[in-house]
Design a protein that fits this description.
The protein is of the alpha/beta class. The protein has one domain: 3-Layer(aba) Sandwich (Rossmann fold), CATH 3.40.50.150. The chain has seven helices and nine strands; from the N terminus they run H-H-E-E-H-E-H-E-H-E-E-H-E-H-E-E. It has a seven-stranded mixed sheet with strand order 5-4-3-6-7-9-8. A two-stranded antiparallel ribbon has the order 1-2. Helix 4 links the parallel strand 3 and strand 4. Helix 3 runs parallel beside helix 4. The structure holds S-adenosylmethionine (SAM). The site of S-adenosylmethionine has 23 residues, from helix 4 and strand 4.
Length: 286
């Protein structure tokens, strides 16, 4: 297996060279040092948590041409991060959805030394920004096995591996809290959940189809620390309306951290709009 196996579609020549070099070193280590790294993407990861990542190097991404699994689709620069991150095939990528959330994370002490949960992390972009902003611990979940691979791969590149844990949600138990322990609580809970009604036929469909939000909202009281905040990012008017109705029904205090008016926006819009939920606190402080 050589570096040409990798499909990299949007990277500058220098960074592409650096990544190919890093990849080449990993390939040599895995094949030459006998570390037993898993290069087989035909088997679905059962628990691609930080624990399993610890045992081996970041998963190797094999060529799409080999038809064995996802390849790196692109290398992307994200404003707050020191290095480009990988985006795998079949994994959601629309950084503008969470632009205001990342700005909040970058410019305030929202997550500094806090525990953070991200539900539906995809490439890990928002969780990585939380780690970069000094979060004490970040747990990131996704139901798409390739997203879990992707979100576990990037922290290794950025040396955030010991602060980020990625958990795979089973398609048989797709609730928001299925991989969160009963007693686990977080200071900050974030999500840019799927927003359309529809059926999932491919793994990437999980990024769009609206069924997660109800389950997220219902579990907030059990999993948000006293004084904690939840942030939900959406770039879709009907989804935001449904979210507001849901929060009102539950009597959960919330505010929209955006000056745009829903009535003046098209159904789908970018950048996404942020809704903040606080269950134990008022909105007196900014
Ligand atoms: C709109 S994407 C957002 C991804 C990422 N947070 C971002 O902003 O780039 C929604 C993500 O939620 C994931 N997802 C859907 N259902 C899920 C579930 N039951 N549990 C965890 N993640 C889920 C999808 O696979 C997808 O990666």
């Amino acid at each position: 297996m050589g570096a040409e196996c990798f499909r990299v579609e949007s990277a500058s020549a220098t960074s592409m060279f650096n990544h190919l070099l890093r990849t080449f070193v990993i390939v040599i280590c895995l094949t030459g040092c006998g570390s037993g790294g898993n290069t087989d993407f035909t088997s679905q990861p059962t628990s691609a948590t930080r624990q399993s990542q610890k045992k081996s190097a970041p998963p190797l991404v094999v060529s799409a041409a080999s038809d064995r699994g996802p390849s790196i689709l692109a290398w992307e620069k994200v404003e707050a991060l020191p290095e480009q991150i990988a985006v795998f095939d079949h994994v959601f990528w629309e950084p503008d959805d969470t632009k205001s959330l990342r700005e909040l994370v970058r410019t305030t002490d929202l997550v500094h030394k806090k525990s953070v949960l991200e539900i539906g992390t995809a490439s890990g972009i928002v969780s990585l920004c939380c780690s970069q902003a000094g979060a004490g611990k970040v747990v990131a979940t996704d139901i798409n096995p390739w997203a879990v691979r992707n979100a576990a791969y990037n922290p290794e590149l950025l040396n955030f591996g010991d602060r980020m844990e990625v958990r795979l949600v089973s398609q048989k138990q797709p609730q928001a809290w299925a991989v969160i322990l009963r007693e686990e609580r977080f200071d900050v809970i974030i999500s840019n959940p799927p927003w359309e009604p529809g059926n999932t036929t491919r793994v990437e469909d999980f990024a769009f189809y609206f069924r997660l939000i109800k389950s997220i909202v219902s579990g907030l009281p059990e999993h948000l620390n006293p004084g904690g905040q939840a942030f939900l990012a959406y770039g879709h008017v009907p989804a935001i309306r449904r979210l507001r109705t849901l929060l009102q029904k539950n009597n959960f205090p919330f505010r929209t951290r955006d000056e745009r008016l829903l009535d003046e926006l098209p159904d789908s819009f970018l950048p996404g709009m942020l809704t903040e939920v606080r269950l134990h606190d008022t909105f007196a402080s900014p």
